[in-house]
Amino acid sequence: MSTDSHPFHNVTVIGAGTMGHGIAQVCAMAGSTVRLFDVRQDQIDHGLARVAANLRKGVVRGKVTAEVEVAALKRMSGATDLGAACTGADLVIEAVPELLDLKRSLFAEAATHAPSHAVYGTNTSSLSIASIASAVPDPSRVIGMHFFNPVHIMALLEIVVHAGGDAAVLAQVKAFGEAIGKQCIVVKDSPGFATSRLGVCLGMEAIRMFEEGVASAADIDAAMVLGYRHPIGPLKLTDLVGLDVRMHIGSYLAETLGNAAFEPPALMRQMVAEGKLGKKSGQGFYSW
Fold first, then answer.
1. Domains of the chain by range and CATH?
2. Which among 66, 112, 266, 275 would be 20 to 30 A from 54, CA to CA?
3. pLDDT over 70 (residue 255)
4. For residue 275, what are the CA distances in angstroms to 29, 233, 242, 268, 280?
5. What pTM did the predictor assign?
6. What's residue 3's pLDDT?
7. Separation of alpha carbons 115 and 166, rounded Å
8. Virtual CA dihedral for 13, 16, 22, 27, nearest 10 degrees?
9. What distance in Å separates the CA atoms of residue 60 and residue 147, rounded to the nearest whole number?
């Protein structure tokens, strides 16, 4: 797809991990030139390799043409220097861990190198967009761009707007979302937005049920998949997202919303302490 259909010809993605490499992939497939930043070259190499593997699998399955595969890979490069990565960027997307200070510091540094017209998209799943936005000279150019894993397959892009946001930026990001094949929803800057607030609450209750011996993990998940037509059960989804990630989000939501329903159960805290983080560690509520 040509970048004539959206305003972001040059995209910088900060973080080459689980979400970052997927975001970089869909941007490159939409015709943008993409620079993938991480502090370590091996992380960048791993991220680019995962993109190549995703594209190759898409070609084998007939979902991606060989031409798109070759063109997307040519548009991508890596950088361990944030300044170099952000120079000339039209859009800077951060996909780093859910730590407010980290996100703020990265955007603050990026803003010293990116042009004044650049838009800053944060992939946070729960943190205050306004708090992140206050780190850059023009907070109106910061917006929430919450992607879902795996990025190249999941159709949703949750766009989160804060009170000081620019309507023109929202219009640009919506156009870009459509160009990268996403269905966009627009949500107010409120703790947990729409997706995390609902999903984490359900996930925490599922863990409490498992902890109490109400049913097995597989049966709790089957209840939601077969009874409510969820594509995946809440415990398996927690394994895919990462128990540590969801624990941090739950703690944040419990505190900011004053709602104990989001409080991580003791079992979850124990599993995280033992390194049972889900799919990425090989063990969570399921063995991977």
1. 3-188 (3.40.50.720), 195-281 (1.10.1040.10)
2. 275
3. yes
4. 35, 22, 11, 11, 10
5. 0.89
6. 56
7. 17
8. 30
9. 25
